[in-house]
Amino acid sequence: MVIAKLKSEFKIKDLGNVKHLLGMEITYVPGCMLTIFQKGYTEKILVRCKMDKCKPVPTPLVKGNFPMPGDPDVKPMCVNPDPDVGYRQIVGSLQYLVQCTRPDIANAVRTLGKFLNCFTREHHMLAKRVLRYLRGTSDYGLVWTRSESPDMQFVAYVNAWRPPKKEVQIVAYADADLGNEKDDRRSVTGFVLQVEEFFARS
């Protein structure tokens, strides 16, 4: 219906279901499954940062205190020895992955992003650790599958933008790390909203 309406108003060409969009690889099986990955984009980052042959690691960050610029044992990075693997470039590329398909590296990238103007060699190595994690998980992505018992009233509401015939169940989950930021002892809070069987993360 939407495409037919657009064709009646504008001169357009229907190319079918989208398969590649802004670095995302999309597969859609009507009424069954939707998958979004960024394997190709991830591999390009690794090649550009000369990390395509690195040894993978199981986690994006290591447990423990994050190096702060004022720490006596932390040495500032005055000159970047290789502009192709610059700290800001790595973090910027990782941020796009987080926004699209990789919530599993969100906390690591959030932490790295705090030091864009005061990064050190230690931060640069931690950024490369995230790349090493991606080296072993480049095929990770988002997968949506149809529920075995979908709530058709809610689906109709989403599709038609009209009030549902029954109450919509909304569940919220939240957590905080209780003053775990070493420099200012602030807490980091995260939450997830679940609307029926659909999730909205933040």
TrEMBL record:
Q: Specify the superkingdom.
A: Eukaryota
Give the PANTHER family listed for this entry.
GAG-POL-RELATED RETROTRANSPOSON, INTEGRASE CATALYTIC DOMAIN-CONTAINING PROTEIN
Give the protein's recorded name: Reverse transcriptase Ty1/copia-type domain-containing protein
Q: Which organism is it from?
A: Phytophthora cactorum
Q: What phylogenetic lineage does the species belong to? A: Eukaryota, Sar, Stramenopiles, Oomycota, Peronosporomycetes
